[in-house]
Amino acid sequence: RKRMSGAALGIEIVVVFFLALFLLHRYGDFRKQQRMVLFGTLLAWYLCFLIVFILPLDVSTTIYRQCKKDNEERMAMLAVTAEFSNQTAANSSVLPTKSSPKVCYKPWSYIPDGIMPVFWRVVYWTSQCLTWLLLPFMQSYARSGGFSITGKIKTALIENAIYYGTYLLIFGSLLIYVAVHPQWQLSWYELQTIGITAANTWGLFLLVLLLGYGLVEIPRSYWNASRRGHLLLKTYFKAAKLMTEKADAEENLEDIMEEVRKVSESIKYNHPLRKYVDTILRKCPVDYQEKMGRNMDDYEDFDDKQNTYPSERSLEKLHKQVIYAVQRHNRTRVQWQILLDQALHLEDVAKNETSSTHQFVHSFAPAEPPSWFSRYVYTPTVEWYWECLLKQWFYRLLAVVLSLFSVAVVWSECTFFSTRPVLSLFAVFIQLAEKDYNYLYIEMACFITIFFLCTCVYSTVFRIRVFNYYYLASHHQTDAYSLQFSGMYVTSILIVANLQAFLPFDPAPLLKLSWSDPHGLCHLTPAEGADSLYFCDLGTRCLNLLGFQQFMGENDMTSDLIDEGKELIRREKRKRQRVEDGENRRREWKERYGNQRDDYVTRNRNTHSELKETNYGDTMNASANRQARYSRPSNRSGDRDRIELLQDAEPLDFNAEMLSDDPLESESGRHAGGRYLSMSSSRSRIFDDV
After folding, report:
1. What's phi and psi for 671, nearest 5 deg?
2. Do 363 and 388 meet the contact criterion of CB atoms below 8 Å apart?
3. Bias category Polar residues: which stretches (predicted)?
4. Torsion 284-290-291-293 (CA) sign
5. Which residues, 6 or more positions from 650, have their beta carbon under 8 angstroms from its beta carbon?
6. Are strands 675-676 and 465-466 parallel, antiparallel or unpaired?
7. Residue 565's closest CA among 339, 233, 334, 239?
8. Sequence-distant (≥ 6) Cβ neighbours of residue 252 within 8 angstroms
9. Burial category of 662 from C-beta neighbours within 10 Å (exposed 0-12, middle 13-18, buried 19 and up)
10. In angstroms, rounded to a whole number, what is the distance separating the alpha carbons of residues 335 and 242?
11. Alpha carbon distance 526, 475 (integer Å)
């Protein structure tokens, strides 16, 4: 059994590590981003996900230990009662009642004594160090435009010194006020408690906002996902906003590249600062690098007396701007392609709803070949039933279940301090399972509840966006600064989030769990106030009033952006259609005339081989005559080769239907078949591809 409990703990640790690694791979870029940035973010996310899986084991172990402790108290009471009964047996005929000890069943996932307290201390203080020391330093280090490790460390230290100097000044002022006050005398333990409480208070403030948003937004998002018309309009709205951001990112990148070009032209190859310029150029896109390389003359020496050159600090600033501009440009470009695919898919779903064949037909062929799952399991018929019939009902049912779960969580948080009678629904379920020592049910109930609450909190961290300052984008498009910022968020609410997670349960385990030892308990506030605010869309309406366009049903600005996004999607769809038509024409051209070309090549090879064999056994005069005799076919074969090269390069507006079957039907060997639409006599097809 010890091996089984240790195996359960080890398996959970390994599974959570790979889960955190998968999310980091989805949002980060292992090839381009720095190792320390990836390590800090991975450690922060790993600790957050690990607690979700380890806490249920701590609960079942605590219940077993409490049962053993109660039995020990009962045994001690029985011993005292037996001694008292022996002394008073002769004087009294009434004996005190004896209560037999309960049978305590050891859970399958029991964790030995001494492991969990050490584990929670390590988790707590590691999260505090990540939140207040390592991650802020790595943020400044990753955002720095320095060209060396020493320069980046120096910049990071200066920025963090300014940041924490403000906090130390405020804390020092309060500490001096407390020290000079005659009635207040603080010891080191009390100062430590004040610091821990201050950190938990900041985490609690974030928790109330994030949890309140998640409890409302997650069920509502699934309900809105079941409304295809609403989801398509919202996609059009997002497309209009994203196109504006994409155009702004492209314009910003062009301005930065123009500045880089000027610096590159002014600082020549033998200038001391040229190595910094080369570092900046390596961070630029490839097309801009080639353009700057063609316009640069490295053979001209620099002259310090005639030209003014930028300083190293200005180059560091330019380096920082280049990194940010390139990252933003790549992110908007990838997001635009993803959003375009989503919009086209939703339009396909709307078109296939009225299909009588029950076969899902896509507007465009997939870029990748179909997998075995698509060929044998997720067939077009199955896809039609899922996308057009079952998916919306499944999302509606899931939204109703999650809404009931959110209501139960809020009710349990409001009635957390009521122990007699117990009003919390989750506490009632846990107490019923505790009577029968059904540890598997206890762990599953705790895991589902904690998982739901932490999903509400952490999903909000992954969704929120603070202008372009903090934004988590999938498909490897998140910059290093945002990754570190998310790590700071999740570690600052790490312990408080799991304290809040136990509010729906009985308060007794909250005082007895191993994780309550390293930091103490703090008074927690339910999040039902934030739930009501988010339920009324107060945040969306406030942002819309401040000028940040939000998707609101009855709004003129929203309608205009929806129309603009619809036109943008239509334009991109026509562009894709033209590209696909061009590929189909090229494919048909190769399939139609590829065999003829092979025959021509084989015929030419046979002709040349016959010429070589004939010329090998004849005299010089005969060979000269034969050479003159076969001069016309050789020229004709050269014409055929040129015709074959022309057949491979088929133009966009080429009319292949007018091509004759025999490309060599004319005596001159000139190609007489194909005609361009711009030279055609039919006026109705001049502007077909415009």
Report:
1. -70, 120
2. no
3. 616-636
4. positive
5. 585, 586, 589, 656
6. unpaired
7. 239
8. 325, 328, 329
9. exposed
10. 8
11. 35
Q: How many CB atoms lie within 10 A of CB 416?
A: 21
CB count in 10 Å sphere of residue 121: 15
Structural contact between residues 637 and 610, judged by C-beta atoms closer than 8 angstroms? no
The per-residue b/e assignment along 473-506, b for 16 or more CB within 10 angstroms, e otherwise, is beebbbbbbbbbbbbbbbbbbbbbbbbbbbbbbb
* Per-residue CA distances from 449 to 426, 453, 455, 527 (Å): 9, 6, 10, 16
The Cα 92–Cα 68 span in angstroms is 33
Mean pLDDT, the chain, integer: 76
Strand partners, 675: 655
Q: For residue 96, tell me if it sits in a domain.
A: no
Residue 391: Cβ within 10 Å count = 15
Residue 23 lies in a domain: yes
* Rounded CA separation 47/328 (Å): 29
pLDDT score at 256: 95
Q: Is residue 147 part of a domain?
A: yes
Element holding 475 (H helix, E strand): none
pLDDT at 398: 96
**Structure tokens that stand for 513 in this block:** 């769990």
Contact 237, 557 (CB under 8 A): no
CB 320 within 8 A of CB 244: no
Interatomic CA distance for residues 428 and 527, integer angstroms: 21
Instruction: Residue count of the chain, please give it.
Output: 690
Work out the angle between the directed axes of helices 312-352 and 228-266 (0-180°, nearest 10).
Answer: 150
pLDDT at residue 582, as a whole number: 87
Copy the structure tokens of residue 593: 């005339």
**Number of structural domains in the chain:** 1
Measure the N-to-C terminal CA separation of the chain; round to a whole number of Å: 75
Mean pLDDT by 10 residues, the chain (690 residues): 65 90 92 89 90 84 83 79 67 51 79 83 86 89 89 91 86 79 72 74 80 90 90 92 93 94 86 90 89 61 62 91 92 93 93 90 82 86 92 95 91 77 80 82 87 88 80 88 88 64 50 52 43 55 62 77 93 91 85 66 56 46 42 44 42 40 38 36 41
In a domain, 583, yes or no: no
- Distance from CA of residue 505 to its chain's centroid? 32
Write down the residue that tokens 């906090």 correspond to.
Answer: 167
Residue 518: is the preceding peptide bond cis (ω within 30°)? no
Q: In the 8-state DSSP scheme, what is residue 104?
A: P
Query: So what's the pLDDT on residue 2?
Result: 52
Q: What is the 3-state secondary structure (H, E, C) of 238-288?
A: HHHHHHHHHHHHHHHHHHHHHHHHHHHHHCCCCCCCHHHHHHHHHCCCHHH
Tokens matching residue 350:
């709307």
Separation between Cα atoms, residue 54 and residue 115, nearest integer Å: 12
CA distance 454 to 467: 25
CA dist 137 and 130 (Å) reads 10
654-655/675-676 β-pairing: antiparallel
Interhelix angle 115-129/494-501, rounded to 10 degrees, is: 130
| 3 state SS of 540 | helix
CA 291, CA 601: separation in Å to the nearest integer? Answer: 40
User: Domain containing 422: what range?
Assistant: 4-84+102-226+369-504+533-557
Q: Using CA atoms, how far apart are residues 507 and 430, in angstroms rounded to an integer? A: 12
